[in-house]
Amino acid sequence: MELHNNSTSFEISGASSRVQEKWNKPQRSRHKSVQFEEDLIHEEDPRLIYINDWRRTNDKYEFTGNGIRTSKYTLITFLPKNIFIQFHRVAYLYFLGIAALNQLPPLAVFGRTVSLFPLLFVLCVTAVKDGYEDWRRHRSDEVENNREALVLYAGQFQKKKWKKIQAGEVVKIYADETIPCDMVLLGTSDPSGIAYIQTMNLDGESNLKTRYARQETASMVLDVGAISGLIKCEQPNRNIYEFKANMEFNGQRFPLNQSNIILRGCQLKNTEWVIGVVVYAGQETKAMLNSAASPSKRSKLEIYMNRETLWLSFFLFIMCLAVAVGMGLWLERHKNQLDTLPYYRKRYFTTGRFNGKSYKYYGIYMETFFSFLSSIIVFQIMIPISLYITMELVRLGQSYFMIEDKHMYDSSSDTRFQCRSLNINEDLGQVRYVFSDKTGTLTENKMEFRRASVYGKNYGSFLIRADPLEENVHATTVEGRGQKLKSQIAIDNELMELLHKDLAGDERIAAHEFFLTLAACNTVIPIPTSSASCTESGLHEYVGAINYQGESPDEQALVAAASAYGYTLFERTSGHIVIDVNGEKLRLDLLGLHEFDSVRKRMSVVIRFPNDTVKVLVKGADSSMFSILAEDSGRNGHVRPATQSHLTEYSSQGLRTLVVAARDLTDEELSEWQCKYEDASTSLTDRSVKLRQTAAFIECKLNLLGATGIEDKLQDGVPEAIESLRQAGIKVWVLTGDKQETAISIGLSSKLLTTDMNQIIINGNSEDECRSLLADAKAKYFVKSLDCGSKYLKYKKDAEVTLDNTKSSTMPQQHSGKEEEMLSTSHALIIDGNSLVYILEKDLESELFDLATSCKVVLCCRVAPLQKAGIVDLIKSRTDDMTLAIGDGANDVSMIQMADVGVGICGQEGRQAVMASDFAMGQFRFLKRLLLVHGHWNYQRVGYLVLYNFYRNAVFVLMLFWYILSTAFSTTSALTDLSSVFYSLIYTSIPTIVVGILDKDLNDETLLQYPRLYGAGHRQESYNMRLFWITMIDTLWQSLVIFYIPVFIYSDSSIDIWSMGSLWTITVVILVNVHLAMDVQRWIFITHVAVWGSIIITYACLIAVDSIPIFPNYGTIYHLAKSPSYWLSIFLILTIALLPRFLFKVIRQNFWPSDIQIAREAEILGDQPDNLPSKSSKGSG
């Protein structure tokens, strides 16, 4: 990301104060963690900061201290808040009700205490996990708040804890220390008031930024007793790219801007010390205002589970109601025979002390009511609480295999994949939108100088990388120190030979000025580092290595390239620069600098040479440079067309291009420019506009020198990963704080953008202008407004919502003429953060949503951290599509937390993104494998796991239901209590877990070769309402078969009820395991052990239980096993119960096979499926 210090280059909030007013205008609250609601500084209500007088500053106690809190809970709120979050699972509420019912004496089917154990166990385990995570946040906050800084007190700087620092206090920071709060610089160790900071924790950039103390205060700061004054600044806001204030100091009043403030979280670099006054502290600092609260994420499939749980609850209610009504009618019919009929008694008939005494009989109506409640307890496993525990174990196992996947290990950084959240593994298989940062995520943030066009001649086609030991070692000796650049640059020998000729001739002079411009027209800081080396004579020679630090990697690459060709930037101060030109030091006076801004799209520097010649050196985008060149005569006549041709060639190669030009300034022009420059730079109103006008005065009639081509180094495999994601039906949006040109360039090099795409650019500076641009774009490209009447706008999951689709809800089905031509072309939306300030409101959000979702690619440039989150929320709140955000810096944290799935890159930008993410990896390319392979597997496994658990428990409950209907609607059971408990705990749990962790429908090579297979998750093929109802119908059939076939076979026998219960128990266990076996996609040894071993364990448990004399079912299994009817019953039940399912699968796979089934058959047979486009084919995306 390229950040500029001067307010003239502020691009996110625009070039005028109206943008800041709009940024801070109260806006609609869309999401509790994304609110673009700011308090603007009003002239009548500014924040007053009295320098070195915190008591007067905070006399009304309206300012917060500097303590921060990022934790979610306190000791008081932990229990209620955590329980509230956990009970978002509907099943938990259900089991809480069951446990409460079991506490009533008439309904105590199980032990009162025992009934609470399952729910309490799940709640406690989750609470311990959440408590531990929040304890770590508390500990981190405590460490942060108890750090110490030097604060001015009674004329001396004394140590003070960060949390006790107040607004108005003067703080001193030393090199490499972290800034504790937002501070206005008063002075630095540099006499000119310059300080260098690293903003990695704030905007994700590792390059050094320059900040300045006003000269009025810098000269007085050493006399700490004289530090006093008044700062009038804006109220706290989230805008990290602008600061507006005025300072009154020693009777003077002067403006302050972004270049005069250092923000919390930044680090002081290459500056011995700085002194500043606190203006914002604690939660009011810009860093904390841009920190969104960490949300609690739940998988979408789990949300759908709540819907199905409600259906199961409805079935349960109907079943219990049927039992209660049936019991009431039966009691009414036989009310005079209750002492002689089975199942019910009014009195005891026994020889003990209870003989003749009355039962607790409450009458027909109360008995009916109690029967309803007792049925709920008996049928309670209809809603499986064990499912949640099983899912946690399965997700844990899945995470282990993701972590151990050697294909997602980054050897360059020694980083392996991390699973930081176990709740959303299956969401990886349903992602529709990927929101990606650029710098450090798609790129390595490393630029390489590749091509140069100098005086109409093209260089760089054949670059030679010099020997690392000899490269860039210049023959200069300054006070006994050799200078060497800390980089390796490939050079063009022909160009190098030209630069070593005598300085004569137009081509040689143009080349000289070309590289002089590259070395001087920038804000790069040369940082010398010395190291001793031993020479052949045994003497120690000090060799100084120059390390370039700058706000833009482009500038660093250009300066490094200039150094490689003999023009080494050696020193930079606020008043001059020193360039080593082939061994000779050239000192140039720096008269003025017009930094890059999005309006001019260029940068210029005015320098004075030792011979008093004054030149303006300019570099910028070709779109803005060619219009300000001198007339096409003389030198520009033949250079211009050649340079334009070279630029076209560079752009086609995906290189970042800049045009370089210069001209001499006359004394009159210089004098007039200096007057305008001084007036513009001190203006309080329309400063940006005036500075642009001043720059335009000298940026004209330029002589074209040439152009450059820089390669923005992409991470390995990024273009291939993006292409595979697009073929999988996933839209990739890039949200970056970088310049628009940079984002477009990287979009081309990453194959996100293609040359045949129509680029829709939205750069508005007012609400009306943005509204007009959006409306014009929608009209031009025939985008229809979507129906947003409901909160969620659901798309057809088997189609992409893009303009080039033939069937989309965003456009008519038939088109003609120009409209048809437009719709056949792909479109890319490119929008800047300035426009988003106005658009992210209620009335314009829908317009942006319509346009953005109709484009294949969206690039958002110069966006603030919360704007990134706002874009994610734009999709998340209006569609039911799964969103994923990926980034590497602290500026990506809000976006990562807002998305359904957050992925952090373990890069060079700190660990803030990783700490806030759900998953973390070393390279962007691993996202392809994470989604297409592990995401597909996890979704397929968990989807089947949920349906199978619903089936497994429902078939057991329905079997009990048919038995109760056959026993006068009583809530008696033919199964022992141990059998009921062991059914979910031992008999059927292990196969479910094993299959959920290890089953694979396709191997990873097939899934990577055919990205389109990922669309199964978009279409919800593994879990949907249709599958749920089919499963329930199949469950109903199987339960009827299980119950009635043994009843039919043993109808004329004298078999006792415990023997029937034993038969039903073993049969249902075998049935559900064989059912599972029919659906296993890939058999391995452990799968066989789990499935068939469960049946063996069930038999072993039955034999053990039936061998205990005190149990009523003593010996039943021994008698049953001897009877042929027993084995016949099991065989018939399995055959008849599973036959419909078998026929359904056969017919479906033969006549209506899915893509997964086709690929699986081809995989087994070793063929290539003809109707599945591979990654080499044209993607759908």
Automatic annotation (TrEMBL):
Transmembrane parts of this sequence: 310-331, 369-389, 950-969, 1027-1051, 1057-1076, 1083-1105, 1125-1144
Cofactor: Mg(2+)
Signal peptide: none
Keywords assigned by UniProt, alphabetized: ATP-binding, Magnesium, Membrane, Metal-binding, Nucleotide-binding, Translocase, Transmembrane, Transmembrane helix
Positions of ATP binding: D437, K438, T439, E555, F596, K619, R656, T736, G737, D738, R862, K868, N891, D892
Gene Ontology CC entries for this record: plasma membrane
UniProt-listed Enzyme Commission number(s): 7.6.2.1
CDD domains: P-type_ATPase_APLT_Dnf-like
Compartments (UniProt record): Membrane
Domain P-type ATPase N-terminal, residue spans: 49-114
Residues where Mg(2+) binds: D437, T439, D888, D892
Membrane association type: Multi-pass membrane protein
UniProt-listed SUPFAM superfamilies: Calcium ATPase, transduction domain A, Calcium ATPase, transmembrane domain M, HAD-like, Metal cation-transporting ATPase, ATP-binding domain N
A biological-process GO annotation: phospholipid translocation
Chemical reaction(s) catalysed: ATP + H2O + phospholipidSide 1 = ADP + phosphate + phospholipidSide 2
Enzyme class, UniProt record, top EC level: translocase
Location of the P-type ATPase C-terminal domain: 914-1154
Family listed: Belongs to the cation transport ATPase (P-type) (TC 3.A.3) family. Type IV subfamily.
Protein name as catalogued: Phospholipid-transporting ATPase
Gene source species: Vitis vinifera (Grape)
Biological classification of the source: Eukaryota, Viridiplantae, Streptophyta, Embryophyta, Tracheophyta
